């Protein structure tokens, strides 16, 4: 069996991007060929929110991202304890990453 080996991929992170964008709201939409995730910041008392970042993924990459997020959340919870989400029943989890079913996170 042939293995894919990392060929020394180098990724550059500019100072502007390294600062990051805080987001507490995500809208996820999809077509037959792409998933689009818009990240926004919703603040109390501010009636209008603005999308701060948009990420467009192929379906295969969206599924890989889902797996990577699930794995990292499990690692986080092993180290720091369960992440509690207000107004969500505690107990066995189902695989519904954002739970609302309407494309919002």
How would you summarize what this structure contains?
The protein has 105 residues and is an alpha+beta fold. 25% of the residues lie in helices and 20% in strands.
Question: Can you describe what's shown?
Answer:
- The chain is α+β, with helices and mostly antiparallel strands and 105 residues long.
- Helix content is 25%, strand content 20%.
- It has helices at residues 15-18, 59-80; strands at 25-30, 35-41, 50-57.
- The radius of gyration is 17 Å and the shape is extended.
- The N and C termini lie far apart (40 Å).
- Residues 93-102 have low confidence and may be disordered.
What's the story with the biggest beta sheet?
3 strands, antiparallel
Shape: extended
Could you say which structural class the secondary elements and strand pairing correspond to? Answer: alpha+beta
Amino-to-carboxy terminus distance: 40 Å
Total number of β-strand segments? 3
Rounded to an integer, what's the Rg over CA atoms?
A: 17 Å
Low-confidence stretches: 93-102
- The number of helical segments is 2
Strand content: 15-25%
Q: What is the H/E order?
A: HEEEH
Helical percentage: 10-25%
């Amino acid at each position: 069996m042939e293995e894919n080996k990392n060929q020394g991929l180098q990724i550059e992170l500019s100072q502007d991007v390294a600062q990051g964008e805080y987001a507490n709201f995500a809208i996820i939409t999809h077509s037959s060929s792409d998933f689009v995730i818009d990240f926004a910041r919703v603040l109390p008392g501010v009636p209008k929110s603005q999308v701060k970042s948009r990420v467009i993924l192929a379906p295969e990459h969206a599924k890989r991202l889902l797996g990577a997020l699930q794995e990292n959340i499990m690692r986080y919870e092993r180290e720091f304890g369960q992440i509690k989400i207000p107004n969500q029943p505690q107990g066995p989890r189902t695989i519904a990453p954002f739970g609302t079913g309407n494309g919002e996170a």
